[in-house]
């Protein structure tokens, strides 16, 4: 007999040795989407980090450093960069660990816990970015203004004296400006991570429902 | 939410019933247990993604052949075919001859290994052939014309003939 026909005749015999996956295991596979969502969170965080580094390095030419030097904030800027990188790398590490954990989770309860943890990590990361931006912006404003006043000789200094109302206006405008700036950043992060977080949440609800059955 | 849960239940039960199709494809396209499981999971995910569009136009199994094979083909096309086939022995034990006969089983093993060496599309074609699909079904599942399916299959048959009679 032809080899192929021989195989065809006996083809069904292999079914006895095929592995069998249970209903629950298949169910779990369709919620394993979580693992790929968390992978994306990790990948996006890397891209974001690299983008930030490229932007920093690309924008920071000699002129930039000179102007920082003049304003006497070069050193503090370098420190700020360093600390920021360290913290960002720490978050990337956490994202990676979350991904690994979710990938190897086999129980629904554990997966639910991991999902909560991941959502928390992402949320605290976004919070960190917003707070650090606010702190850095405010302190830069303050330092620039402070050193600028110190360095500038004005003929008639009385014209530049700020009264209480002027300070109030200045502070008000700064806060509103900062608020808008942070709002935009927040919106950007909502786009970046918010969709993924929503999906994770949906996945979580599904698991919860499954658990109730 | 309830609708979606019902859909999930429907899908999972159907897949559970027809999972042999996916396992046979995994066995043909992968070389170890781990990648077998990976491919099975990928097929499950792809099926689940496509399920809302399924709507019961065709039989679930027919639809499953198409999606599962496409997943295997796309996934394994990217990989270089440098991976060696598994040991002869492991295949040897999986496909048993109806009447026990050492020589026949050896031939079955050789044949199976030869099929594993074919390219992705050829493998899919032979698989459907072995699953006793007619050329119309084969052509519909793989999205090629019936004539093309016949021509290709004949070529594969010739290729495989030389395996047992070198």
From TrEMBL, chain A:
<feature type="transmembrane region" description="Helical">
    <location>
        <begin position="167"/>
        <end position="192"/>
    </location>
</feature>
<keyword id="KW-1133">Transmembrane helix</keyword>
<protein>
    <submittedName>
        <fullName>Uncharacterized protein</fullName>
    </submittedName>
</protein>
<keyword id="KW-0472">Membrane</keyword>
<feature type="transmembrane region" description="Helical">
    <location>
        <begin position="125"/>
        <end position="147"/>
    </location>
</feature>
<feature type="transmembrane region" description="Helical">
    <location>
        <begin position="37"/>
        <end position="58"/>
    </location>
</feature>
<keyword id="KW-0812">Transmembrane</keyword>
<feature type="transmembrane region" description="Helical">
    <location>
        <begin position="78"/>
        <end position="97"/>
    </location>
</feature>
TrEMBL record, chain B:
<dbReference type="Pfam" id="PF04542">
    <property type="entry name" value="Sigma70_r2"/>
</dbReference>
<dbReference type="InterPro" id="IPR036388">
    <property type="entry name" value="WH-like_DNA-bd_sf"/>
</dbReference>
<dbReference type="GO" id="GO:0003677">
    <property type="term" value="F:DNA binding"/>
</dbReference>
<comment type="similarity">
    <text>Belongs to the sigma-70 factor family. ECF subfamily.</text>
</comment>
<dbReference type="InterPro" id="IPR007627">
    <property type="entry name" value="RNA_pol_sigma70_r2"/>
</dbReference>
<dbReference type="Pfam" id="PF08281">
    <property type="entry name" value="Sigma70_r4_2"/>
</dbReference>
<feature type="domain" description="RNA polymerase sigma factor 70 region 4 type 2">
    <location>
        <begin position="111"/>
        <end position="160"/>
    </location>
</feature>
<keyword id="KW-0731">Sigma factor</keyword>
<protein>
    <submittedName>
        <fullName>RNA polymerase sigma-70 factor, ECF subfamily</fullName>
    </submittedName>
</protein>
<keyword id="KW-0805">Transcription regulation</keyword>
<dbReference type="GO" id="GO:0016987">
    <property type="term" value="F:sigma factor activity"/>
</dbReference>
<keyword id="KW-0804">Transcription</keyword>
<dbReference type="GO" id="GO:0006352">
    <property type="term" value="P:DNA-templated transcription initiation"/>
</dbReference>
<dbReference type="InterPro" id="IPR013249">
    <property type="entry name" value="RNA_pol_sigma70_r4_t2"/>
</dbReference>
<dbReference type="InterPro" id="IPR039425">
    <property type="entry name" value="RNA_pol_sigma-70-like"/>
</dbReference>
<feature type="domain" description="RNA polymerase sigma-70 region 2">
    <location>
        <begin position="16"/>
        <end position="81"/>
    </location>
</feature>
<dbReference type="InterPro" id="IPR013325">
    <property type="entry name" value="RNA_pol_sigma_r2"/>
</dbReference>
<dbReference type="InterPro" id="IPR013324">
    <property type="entry name" value="RNA_pol_sigma_r3/r4-like"/>
</dbReference>
<dbReference type="InterPro" id="IPR014284">
    <property type="entry name" value="RNA_pol_sigma-70_dom"/>
</dbReference>
């Amino acid at each position: 007999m032809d080899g192929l026909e021989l195989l065809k005749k006996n083809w069904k015999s292999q079914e006895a040795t095929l592995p069998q996956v249970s209903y629950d295991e298949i169910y779990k596979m369709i919620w394993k989407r979580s693992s790929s969502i968390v992978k994306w969170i990790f990948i996006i965080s890397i891209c974001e980090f690299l983008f930030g580094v490229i932007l920093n390095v690309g924008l920071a030419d000699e002129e930039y450093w000179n102007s920082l030097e003049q304003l006497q904030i070069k050193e503090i800027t370098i420190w700020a960069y360093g600390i920021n990188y360290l913290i960002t790398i720490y978050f990337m590490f956490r994202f990676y660990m979350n991904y690994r954990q979710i990938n190897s989770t086999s129980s629904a309860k554990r997966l639910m816990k991991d999902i909560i943890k991941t959502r928390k990590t992402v949320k605290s990361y976004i919070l960190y970015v917003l707070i650090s931006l606010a702190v850095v912006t405010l302190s830069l404003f303050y330092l620039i203004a402070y050193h600028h006043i110190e360095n500038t000789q004005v003929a008639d200094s009385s014209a530049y004296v700020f009264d209480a109302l002027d300070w109030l206006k200045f502070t008000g405008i700064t806060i509103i400006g900062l608020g808008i700036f942070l709002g935009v950043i927040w919106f950007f992060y909502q786009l970046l991570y918010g969709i993924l977080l929503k999906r994770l949440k949906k996945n979580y609800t599904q698991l919860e429902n499954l658990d109730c059955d | 939410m309830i609708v979606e849960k019902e859909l999930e239940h429907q899908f999972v039960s159907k897949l559970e019933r027809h999972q042999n199709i996916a396992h046979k494809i995994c066995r043909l396209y992968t070389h170890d247990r781990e990648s077998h499981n990976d491919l099975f999971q990928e097929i499950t995910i792809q099926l689940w993604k496509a399920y809302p569009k399924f709507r019961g136009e065709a039989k679930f199994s027919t639809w499953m052949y198409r999606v599962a094979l496409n997943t295997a083909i796309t996934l394994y096309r990217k990989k270089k075919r440098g991976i060696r086939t598994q040991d002869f022995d492991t295949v040897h034990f999986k496909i048993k001859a109806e009447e026990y006969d050492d020589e026949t089983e050896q031939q079955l093993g050789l044949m199976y290994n030869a099929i594993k060496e074919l390219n992705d599309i050829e493998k899919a074609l032979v698989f459907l052939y072995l699953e006793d699909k007619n050329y119309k079904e084969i052509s519909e599942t793989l999205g090629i014309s019936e004539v093309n399916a016949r021509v290709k299959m004949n070529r594969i048959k010739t290729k495989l003939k030389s395996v047992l009679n070198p």
